[in-house]
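anyone seen this seq b4? input:
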Amino acid sequence: FQLGQTVTAGIVSAKSRRVPNKASGPYDAFIQTDASINPGSSGGPLFNTRGQLVGINTAIFSPGRTQFGGTGFNIGIGFSIPSNLVRTVVTQLKENGRVVRGLLGVIIQRVDGDMATALNLPGPDGALVADVVPNSPASKAGFQRKDVILSFNQQSVRDHEDLPLLVATTPIGSKVSVDILRGGKKKTLVAVIEELKEVAAAKNSDSPKTDKIGLVVQNVTEDVAKSLKMTAPAGALVGTVEPGSTAERAGIQRGDVIEELNGQLVRDAEHFEKLVPELPVDKPLLVMVRRTEGTRFLTMRIKPAPKS
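predicted toks r here
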């Protein structure tokens, strides 16, 4: 607003907050405050009452109101990156020129009430292991599907979203103890954290036209198969996901390899394109996808076409 230095005051509503939008990531752990954060405040400091810097102002939750001359306005919900997380990132950038993150090697899911009942768990806490990445620290430590991670390196995992940041900020080479629940019994596993190697996302297909579930797919190349630790190229590689489509609502992402669709193994992109038109409408369909972390099951439902 070109007003120079401006100070606002408020309270902290929450710590380790995740923002439910497309810009959020697995390492988010925002401080939520109602001290007004406005356009131009990003990058500025969040102080406590002792004058200590505790966060870097980053974003606001703001409903769009173009009639007021902008894309939105402050309603008292702002987010700041915690200073300890900033310190870690800045130190790594200075020393390494890049951010180094730890890898455990599990794909996790939320434990809700129904899942807790189905697995005979005492409550909806922890992170459910949906898959284990081959040759990863988790694989070497003996993790299995259906394990529920209760704590990591003596820090409680109350929600599955707690785990990624805990793992990412663990020094490479550290030996950590992980408490799990397996078959109703508590067990402690020991893993040695390795460095997470980022894999470049797959390139978009040349064809901009999406199918009836909102995807453009292509064949899996040797390089992609190798990066995803597949024994051989198979399945359909997702190049484009149409916003608001059936596929996006199901959680399918660009770079996923669809290996199974509605109970049928997908041989290649051509086979996938033949299967899609035959998919039933208004019925839960199971999709198995492979990502850098391993396989994951998703469900999708194709909505009936609107009546004319």
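Helices lie at 83-96, 113-118, 137-141, 162-168, 222-227, 246-250, 269-275. Confidence is low (pLDDT under 50) at residues 65-70, 199-208. kinda curious what u guys think
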